[in-house]
């Protein structure tokens, strides 16, 4: 399995009480920015306390990040940040994968489990995915309304689900 841009592999047998601090360097931040369609990532850090329960590991703590992304309307640079609480649980992959048509029912405590294969799990990838979840793909900047008006997208009739059909009808 290839490691990702912010790979920090953890062996459950080596988990102790010291907090794990992950901080993405410039190269890692640039690669993650490209992966997530961002202009740049100025900071990505996570401080997590790990607790092992056999091969399962719980990671609790905080992720903090600052990034620049394009406004979803105007395309101009938009500064964003996140300060998120993380509560992750890594568990060994199930021995036998489910059949394609098999219905699997998960208990509530299983919903946030991250399965891993082999002897280690990638804590850095989990933090990177947490960042991806924190990014608002439809974030808008201060000029968004002006651009909407200029493009004729400021009211529901001109930007709603039937706007394209209405435009065809006019032709």
Write the layout of secondary structure elements.
Elements: E1 9-10, E2 20-23, H1 26-36, E3 40-53, E4 56-70, E5 77-92, E6 113-116, E7 121-122, H2 123-134, H3 144-150, H4 156-159, H5 163-170
Parallel strand pairs: 5-6
Antiparallel strand pairs: 1-7, 2-3, 3-4, 4-5
Organism: Paraurantiacibacter namhicola
Pfam families: YceD
InterPro entries: YceD
Key features?
single chain, 171 residues, five-stranded mixed beta sheet, two-stranded antiparallel ribbon, ACR, YceD
Tell me the structural class. Answer: alpha+beta
Mean pLDDT metric = 86
Distance between the termini: 54 Å
- What is the number of strand segments? 7
Number of domains: 1
Biggest pleated sheet: 5 strands, mixed
How many helical elements?
Answer: 5
Order of helices and strands: EEHEEEEEHHHH
Outline: extended
Helical amount = 10-25%
Can you list the strand order of the major beta sheet? 2-3-4-5-6
**Strand content bin:** 25-35%
- The low-confidence parts are none
Give Rg in angstroms: 21 Å
């Amino acid at each position: 399995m290839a490691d990702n841009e912010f790979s920090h592999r953890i062996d459950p047998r080596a988990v102790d009480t010291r907090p794990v601090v992950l901080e993405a360097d410039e190269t890692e931040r640039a690669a993650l920015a490209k992966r997530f369609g961002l202009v740049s990532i100025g900071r990505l850090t996570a401080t997590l306390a790990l607790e092992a329960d056999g091969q399962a590991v719980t990671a609790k703590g905080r992720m903090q990040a600052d990034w620049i992304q394009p406004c979803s309307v105007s395309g101009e640079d938009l500064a964003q940040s996140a300060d998120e609480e993380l509560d992750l649980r890594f568990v060994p992959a199930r021995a036998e994968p489910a059949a394609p048509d098999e219905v699997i029912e998960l208990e509530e405590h299983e919903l946030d489990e991250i399965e891993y294969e082999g002897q280690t799990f990638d804590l850095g990838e989990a933090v990177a995915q947490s960042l991806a979840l924190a990014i608002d793909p439809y974030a808008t900047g201060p000029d968004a309304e002006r651009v909407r008006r200029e493009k004729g997208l400021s009211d529901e009739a001109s930007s709603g689900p039937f706007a394209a059909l209405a435009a065809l009808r006019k032709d």
